[in-house]
Amino acid sequence: MSSSSSTARRSTGSASREIQNKFLLLKSVEHKALVAAGLDAELPSGSERRGLGGEAAVAPFLAAGIALGDFDLLSDLAYEWNVNAHAKGERAQTLTAGVAVGYRAVRRFTPLIELTTLTQARGGEGDERSLRGRTQVSVVPGFNVVPRPGMTARFGIELPLTDARKSDYTLHSALVWEF
User: Fold this and answer.
1) How many folded domains does the chain comprise?
2) What is the pTM of this model?
3) Which residues contact 174 (CB under 8 A, 6 or more apart)?
4) Which of 44, 65, 144, 161 has CB atoms 3.0–4.6 Å from 54's, for a disulfide?
5) pLDDT in tens, 110-166
6) What CATH code is carried by the domain that includes residue 101?
């Protein structure tokens, strides 16, 4: 089973860097299942005032996965708090949930498809692109590549299925390095 969680976590529509700490809560060798909890820290990649940023946010999450033959079934649930000090109005809070199915086609390559939802619980007043009170539903085709043990490269493109959206599509990539 792939050790990384799903390709898309949330769609903020801006570039950022993310650091994640994950703790293994359950590992069942018999059923090939994992359950993990953790905390994401998202850091802006530039100046938000100049339109180059991203956001500063923290998100506790729960992720689970099970291997069913050559298929992996993964799910995750996260609640994110925007911690930008200069944000106007109430700071954004979002609930994100996702489920993904991957097929281990070859030893180090797993194509996958994910369905995600993002619901803005707070913040976003006065922003014409706010998702407050609406749920964004997206499909994310992507793949995971394992270049070496303990390292996973993830790629995907998030395609919103509803008119509640911050963008027409979002490219996702990540390098997961376990230590």
Assistant:
1) 1
2) 0.77
3) 4, 7, 18, 153, 154
4) 44
5) 999 999 998 888 776 655 556 677 788 999 999 999 999 989 999 999 999 988 666
6) 2.40.160.40
